[in-house]
Structure formats: structure tokens, C-alpha cells
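Quick one, C-alpha cells below. Sequence please?
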């Protein structure tokens, strides 16, 4: 959890540069990268909290194993699902609010049953322990893109 909190702090340092874009790195600007990272984090935690831990059925998944082992998401291989795309204008204010919500939500994970889960479109069911790893890996993926945009 400490690493995720550090990542949230780093994301917040880029909010003032949210309009910055480098199409050789990504078609999306820094604001979109931050917004997407936070939407994923907040929606995952909400889904996990709503889940019924009795319905968790662990199942091996090669894609999940690869990403969790390498702690890396390959760039440009997958588009964000529609449910994670922004539906309104991304503003500095909305990004600050989403950061604060993410900080609150991360703390809620500690209160969950270990078998609470969310369903990932490629990885299947992801439990609480795996959720920490996924959020860290996914956020780092977008932080790397942001850092490259800023170069």
C-alpha cells in the first residue's frame, strides 16, 4: 500500500501539466493518463468492496501470471474499456478530487475479506492481495507514460 500512496503523490505532481501531450509517446495527454489511472483504481476498489467473497474462485490465468511476475504491462497492446473512459471534461479540480478519493479508497482495502475480488476483462477474478499488485503495476505503467511525455 505504501508504494501506491507514493504513486498517488507522484501523480498529483503532474496535475499542473495535465494538458501536455507528446503523440510520439501516446495519443492521450497527461490529464487523461492521470484520470484513467485514478478511475481504474477507484472503480476496482468499489467493485471489490461490493463483491461477495463467497463467490471467489481462484483460477490460474497466464496473462495475469505474466503481468504479476514481470510487474509490467506492455504498451499499446490494449485499449481502455469504455467504462473507464472519461465521460466529462478532465480538469485540475476533478483530478485533485479523484486523488483524494483514491487515497480514501486505498485505506478501505485493508478492511476487506482477503477473498473479496473484482473481475478483470483479461485476468478474471482478482482478489485483495492481487489487487494491490495490479493497482501498483497499472499505475506505474501510466506513470512511465507520463514521465516519457514530460521528457
Amino acid at each position: 500500500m505504501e508504494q501506491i500512496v507514493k504513486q498517488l503523490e507522484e501523480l498529483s505532481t503532474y496535475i499542473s501539466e495535465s494538458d501536455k501531450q507528446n503523440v510520439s509517446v501516446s495519443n492521450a495527454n497527461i490529464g487523461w493518463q492521470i484520470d484513467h489511472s485514478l478511475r481504474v483504481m477507484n472503480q476496482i476498489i468499489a467493485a471489490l468492496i461490493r463483491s461477495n467473497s463467497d463467490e471467489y474462485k481462484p483460477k490460474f490465468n497466464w496473462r495475469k501470471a505474466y503481468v504479476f511476475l514481470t510487474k509490467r504491462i506492455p504498451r499499446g497492446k490494449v485499449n481502455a474499456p469504455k467504462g473507464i473512459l472519461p465521460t466529462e471534461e478532465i480538469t485540475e479540480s476533478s483530478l485533485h478530487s479523484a486523488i483524494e478519493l483514491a487515497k480514501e479508497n486505498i485505506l478501505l482495502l485493508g478492511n476487506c475479506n482477503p477473498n473479496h475480488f473484482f473481475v478483470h476483462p483479461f485476468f478474471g477474478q482478482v482478489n485483495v492481495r492481487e489487487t494491490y499488485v495490479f493497482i501498483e503495476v497499472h499505475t506505474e505503467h501510466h506513470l512511465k507514460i507520463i514521465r516519457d511525455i514530460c521528457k
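Residues 2-150 form a domain with the Four Helix Bundle (Hemerythrin (Met), subunit A) fold (CATH 1.20.120). The chain has one domain: 2-150.
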